[in-house]
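Hi support team,

I've been running sequence recovery on a batch of backbones for a student project. Most finish fine, but this one hangs at about 90% for roughly twenty minutes before it completes. I'm not sure whether the input is malformed or the queue is just slow. I've pasted the structure tokens below so you can try to reproduce it. Let me know if you need the job ID as well.

Thanks,
M.K.
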């Protein structure tokens, strides 16, 4: 996603938290090769991969950039120390 690519991921684990179905890519039903194939065809035939790629970069930067991780961790530590004092 950070590289500006559309994503097709299984609807399992943390994937639905990362991939916005129909916005940054598609989620397919776990263990369903036909659903995966359908999503692959759909993303190409509808030419959605370009817009999904753009939206993927925006989402990855907003939620998972190095700066976001550092600021998030810093906020947790600051909150912890404030509660202890």
């Amino acid at each position: 996603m950070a590289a500006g690519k559309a994503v097709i991921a299984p609807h399992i684990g943390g994937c639905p938290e990362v991939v916005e179905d129909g916005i940054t890519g598609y989620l397919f039903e776990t263990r369903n090769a036909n659903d995966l194939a359908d999503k692959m065809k759909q993303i190409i035939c509808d030419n959605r991969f370009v817009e999904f790629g753009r939206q993927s970069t925006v989402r990855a930067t907003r939620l998972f950039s190095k700066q976001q991780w550092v600021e998030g961790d810093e906020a947790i530590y600051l909150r912890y120390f404030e509660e202890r004092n």
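--
Follow-up from support: It reproduced on our side and the slowdown came from queue contention, not your input. Strands lie at 7-10, 25-28. No action needed from you.
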